[in-house]
Amino acid sequence: MEKIMMMVSGFVMKDLSSSVPHAELLGVLVIITSISIVLAYHYCTTKPRRCLHPEKFQEFKLVKKTAVNHNVARFRFALPTPKSVLGLPVGNHIICRGRDAEGQEVTKPYTPITLDSDFGYFELVVKMYPHGRMSHHFREMHEGDYMAVKGPTGRFTYKPGQVRALGMIAGGSGITPMFQVTRAILENPKDKTNLSLIYANTTFQDILLKEELDGFARKFPSRFNVYYVLSQPPAEGWSGGVGRITKDMIRNHCPAPASDIQVLRCGPSGMNKAMAAHLNELGYTADMQFKF
């Protein structure tokens, strides 16, 4: 923008300097400067382009695929411009479309771990199951391939400060919506919501986004705490929970039932049912709970 205006003003001044009186030349310069300011203000204050369409699938290029462990990878997709944002409300997810091993079309919802404060790209952390239909598509993707995506969709949309405290119970790849909400809250200086996360997995290697979660815990020790639970913990040095998530774990690591708290849960169906039963028995009413 600055270069264009300098070129224009230089051209105009060169053309007019020999034939226009000094006073008029100064007036032209003032006009050009004013136009430059208006255009620069418009450029800087224009809202980033939102890319999602709720009904229409759009193609996004895979620019980076990073293996996390034996069956999980992190996928980065480019948006149309460096200033574009996905346009996903916090708590919502997207629908991805691909093809299974038989070549049949398949769709599945996923929650990006990025926010609209991330410009030019979005990222998914995807667990690829051996016989999962959409898992096959992700497993076969290579950098340079395209993914069809639409959205946003979902029943939960987080608003800053909507509760005093959030409890979160996640299993496996069910961490992604919790991570998205956690990022949005902790990266917003105006949001003072307290966060408690119980995150269950099979082995230590299965814990997703652990480095980022531990970073949040160090940076916000009074507002975010995470309690890891493993059904197959390491033989030595493990200080987290062992086995499955129990009522006592929820009682000790989630906010107590109250009208200004909420507990979110996301994980395998069996785990979700067990957590719902635990929460009900502990006195959490239906409006205090939400299942992704």
TrEMBL record:
Keywords: FAD, Flavoprotein, Membrane, Mitochondrion, Mitochondrion outer membrane, NAD, Oxidoreductase, Transmembrane, Transmembrane helix. It is found in: Mitochondrion outer membrane. One of its GO terms (biological process) is electron transport chain. One of its GO terms (cellular component) is mitochondrial outer membrane. Its cofactor is FAD. InterPro entries: CBR-like, Cbr1-like_FAD-bd_dom, FAD-bd_FR_type, FNR_nucleotide-bd, OxRdtase_FAD/NAD-bd, Riboflavin_synthase-like_b-brl. FAD binds at residues 109-110, 125, 127, 134-135, 176. It comes from the Eukaryota. Residues 55-159 form the FAD-binding FR-type domain. Its EC number is 1.6.2.2. One of its GO terms (molecular function) is cytochrome-b5 reductase activity, acting on NADH. Belongs to the flavoprotein pyridine nucleotide cytochrome reductase family. This is cytochrome-b5 reductase. It comes from Linum trigynum.
